[in-house]
Design brief:
- The complex is a heterotrimer of chains A (about 290), B (about 160) and C (about 260).
- By secondary structure, chain A is α/β, with parallel strands linked by helices.
- Chain A has two domains: about 160 residues, Rossmann fold (3-Layer(aba) Sandwich), CATH 3.40.50; about 60 residues, no CATH class.
- Chain A is built from ten helices and ten strands.
- In chain A, the strands form two sheets. A six-stranded mixed sheet of chain A has the order 6-7-8-3-9-10, sandwiched between helices. A four-stranded antiparallel sheet of chain A has the order 2-1-4-5, covered by helices on one side.
- In chain A, helix 3 crosses helix 4 and helix 3 packs parallel to helix 5.
- The longest helix of chain A has 18 residues.
- Chain A is globular.
- Chain B is of the alpha/beta class and about 160 residues long.
- Chain B has two domains: about 30 residues; about 110 residues, no CATH class.
- In chain B, strands 7-1-4-3-2-6-5-8 form an eight-stranded mixed sheet, with no helix packed on it.
- In chain B, strand 2 and strand 3 form a beta hairpin.
- Chain C is an all-alpha fold and about 260 residues long.
- Chain C contains nine helices and no strands.
- In chain C, helix 2 crosses helix 6, helix 4 runs antiparallel to helix 9 and helix 6 packs across helix 8.
- The radius of gyration of chain C is 21 Å and the shape is elongated.
- Classes of the chains: A alpha/beta (about 290), B alpha/beta (about 160), C mainly alpha (about 260).
- The interface between A and C is medium-sized, with 24 and 13 residues.
Chain lengths: ~290, ~160, ~260
């Protein structure tokens, strides 16, 4: 495992928030450049904090998490995790590095052919040679942390959406990772389970000393727990700062997003020729 | 517990497969060790081999003792030379033995019939690579009919 | 016209890229030393899903195909007074052709389609991504055990198919239509050869097992992760695998018996 000594950046004792993940002006496009997602995107994710990444739907927030997890490769720029350029790693080293991060998928992505208990035990059984008795203790502790110890014998199909996400969270923290990435953790949740998840993210971050990245478009929930916020629009970062700083911002884009106005600098319409032109047949479809 | 049952089922599955293989090998196919165990080779020259093919059986009194392994033309006059691979279980044929090409049934496959010769102190046993000189060629139907018509014409 | 040529070019390029991706998937899944302690239970689980659960359909189809062969063969052979050749006719058609080929077709329909759908659904529900993010290679964890299970199961299934089929032919030919019991088996034994017929049949089914399982796994792994995408991939598995089996059967037959 890479240790702090391998981190190339010069350690400055004054800076407490040494970034765990650094995204350095990446360009990314899906499908051989057909659909540009990011252009010159840069971010720094401080260690031990909750960083929220917000932006309107469809701007590729999930893509960002996949880039950090090295499931996707940017065309330009680089991403470092704890000082290691993740896209320069070989397959084996990459899989080794991924043990130090984990991701909570929007759907939960629990293994449907295993019980909740086995799902949480899965990363432990795969990556450690711990005896079953110790795995049992760890699994019960992790399930207790998300309040699902009583549901450990259920199958994923028997869980509600909110419970599935909590079970997936227990699995995500099973190996005590340094970084947890939450992909839309609040989407499609009722107010109560939303409150539960907000509380869990905050508590886990403090008690386990995690670094969290929360990708979401639910402004009000995330503003209460985030230490730092990035707002993405138009393929790049349009604003960042602490929640308090952003509330004060005069940038119309940030203002539109935080207040939820329908139209503004982020247009309501997907880019298209004008409606009148298209209806009158002046232009071929597409 | 569940994985134990799975393993049991898979084990049974593999056993069923092996049983099927044994059934096919022992009941359906001729694994009677002819040409699979120890063997030796004998040669025989014929004038005409008719429909004999490689892999045709070599029989003694109807019992398969070997197979035809190679058919070539040899010598100055291009006579068919047949190589037979015989099971080493039957290695006591004398050099007075004879071979003939026979047909099983009216329309059946052709095979080589081996007639063991007499044995006394003057004859030697056939060894690997020896040739049998007393041969009788295949009966070719057209020749038979031709001979029959010819003999009719003479009367 | 130029558009059509360009379209053809794209289809060719796409299929080359697809074949390359499929090859890469297989190599990555199979190369490298497996962890026996972890791989063994996974293999057992998949052998059960792919092999044991396919046994019923194989036994039933084998029995009926053998019985039909017995009936049809008898009707044809009896005209020539050669009904004693029923044994070799049934045995040779099963061992050389029908056993491996029909098993592979049934396997593609029964196990191949379910492999594709299962992996496609795992992809759609982000279970494969989730494995990757956990630092577990889905090619090793998901693809490799399924591949080996298919590769080992199909020859076993083909042997069972042939054996049951011969028994079906025996039931109809000997028990029902009255072919002589001894002649049925002895004529069969005289013409069925261990190496030529049985071993070649096993080689055929190994080749089919490789191809069908590979196609099924790759179609699932590379499918578009939507409901339409999965249903297309499943259909495509059955169609592609069946055509591949029939085409390869011709090539193999030409090489072995030609």
């Amino acid at each position: 495992m890479p240790t702090a000594s391998q981190v190339p950046s010069q350690p400055s004792p004054a800076q407490v928030d040494e970034p765990l993940v650094v995204i350095d002006s990446i360009d990314f496009a899906h499908g051989f450049g057909a659909h540009q997602v990011y252009r010159g995107l840069s971010m720094q994710i401080p260690k031990g904090k909750i960083t929220a990444v917000m932006g309107p739907s469809g701007i590729g927030k999930t893509t960002l998490l996949r880039l950090i997890g090295a499931q996707l490769r940017p065309q330009q720029g680089k991403i470092t995790f704890a000082g290691v350029d993740i896209h320069a790693l070989g397959r084996t080293e990459l899989y080794e590095l991924r043990k130090r991060m984990s991701m909570l998928f929007q759907s939960g992505a629990l293994f449907t052919d295993m019980s909740v208990y086995d799902n949480v035990a899965f990363p432990l059984r795969e990556h450690s040679d711990l005896p079953e008795s110790i795995i049992d203790i760890i699994v019960k502790l992790k399930l207790e942390a998300v309040g699902l110890r009583g549901a450990r014998h259920l199958m994923p199909a028997e869980l509600s959406g909110g419970m599935a996400r909590r079970a997936a969270l227990a699995r995500a923290i099973a190996l005590d990772p340094e970084l947890v990435m939450y992909d839309e953790p609040f989407a499609g949740q009722d107010p109560i389970s939303m409150g539960v998840i907000v509380k869990l993210i905050k508590e886990l971050n403090q008690s386990l000393g995690l670094t969290s990245i929360v990708v979401t478009h639910d402004v009000t929930e995330v503003m209460t727990i985030a230490d730092y916020v990035y707002i993405i629009a138009n393929k790049t970062v349009v604003g960042h700062g602490t929640p308090a700083e952003l509330e004060q911002s005069s940038n119309p884009l940030i203002h539109q997003f935080l207040n939820g106005n329908a139209d503004g600098p982020v247009p309501f319409h997907f880019a298209a020729p004008s409606l009148a032109d298209e209806l009158l047949g002046k232009q071929n479809a597409r | 517990m569940e994985s134990r049952n799975t393993q049991l089922a898979v084990g049974l599955f593999v056993i069923i497969g092996i049983l099927a293989l044994l059934f096919l090998g022992l009941r359906a196919a001729n694994t009677s060790a002819v040409t699979t165990g120890e063997t030796y080779r004998l040669y025989a020259k014929f004038d005409n081999i008719g429909g004999l093919k490689e892999r045709s059986p070599v029989k003694v009194g109807g019992v398969v003792v070997g197979r035809v392994t190679k058919i070539t033309l040899s010598g100055e006059y291009y006579e068919p030379l047949v190589e037979m691979t015989i099971s080493a279980t039957y290695d006591k044929f004398s050099d007075t033995s004879s071979v003939s090409i026979l047909t099983s049934g009216l329309l059946g496959e052709q095979y080589i019939g081996l007639n063991p010769g007499f044995v006394d102190e003057t004859v030697e046993m056939l060894q690997d690579g020896d040739q049998i000189y007393d041969t009788k060629s295949a009966l070719v139907l057209e020749d038979l009919i031709g001979q029959f018509l010819f003999s009719q014409g003479n009367d | 016209m130029l558009d059509k040529i360009a379209g053809l070019g794209r289809v060719i390029l796409d299929s080359i890229a697809g074949a390359g991706a499929a090859l890469l998937m297989l190599l990555r899944a199979l190369i490298g030393k497996p962890n026996i302690r972890k791989a063994w239970p996974l293999l057992m689980q998949q052998m059960y899903a792919v092999g044991v659960l396919s046994l019923i359909i194989i036994v039933v189809s084998g029995l009926f195909i053998g019985m039909v062969l017995g009936l049809q063969g008898y009707n044809i052979l009896v005209d020539f007074g050669a009904e004693q050749s029923l044994g070799p006719m049934v045995a040779l058609s099963l061992l050389r052709e029908l056993g491996p080929v029909v098993t592979a077709l049934l396997f593609a329909g029964r196990a191949g389609s379910s492999l594709t759908a299962e992996i496609g659904l795992m992809k759609a529900t982000e279970q494969l991504s989730s494995l990757e993010m956990m630092g577990v290679d889905p090619l090793r964890r998901v693809i490799a055990p399924r591949f080996w299970a298919g590769f080992y199961s199909m020859p076993i299934l083909a042997l069972v198919f042939s054996a049951v089929g011969i028994f079906g032919g025996y039931l109809v030919g000997v028990r029902w239509l009255g072919v002589d019991d001894g002649a049925f088996w002895s004529v069969m034994q005289a013409s069925v050869d261990w190496g030529q017929d049985i071993v070649n049949g096993i080689i055929k089914s190994l080749v089919f097992a490789f191809v069908v399982t590979w196609i099924a796994l790759h179609k699932g792994y590379s499918c578009t992760p939507t409901s339409v995408g999965i249903s297309r991939a499943t259909t495509s598995t059955v169609v592609t695998a069946s055509l591949a089996v029939l085409g390869l059967d011709f090539v193999l037959t030409a090489l072995m018996f030609g």
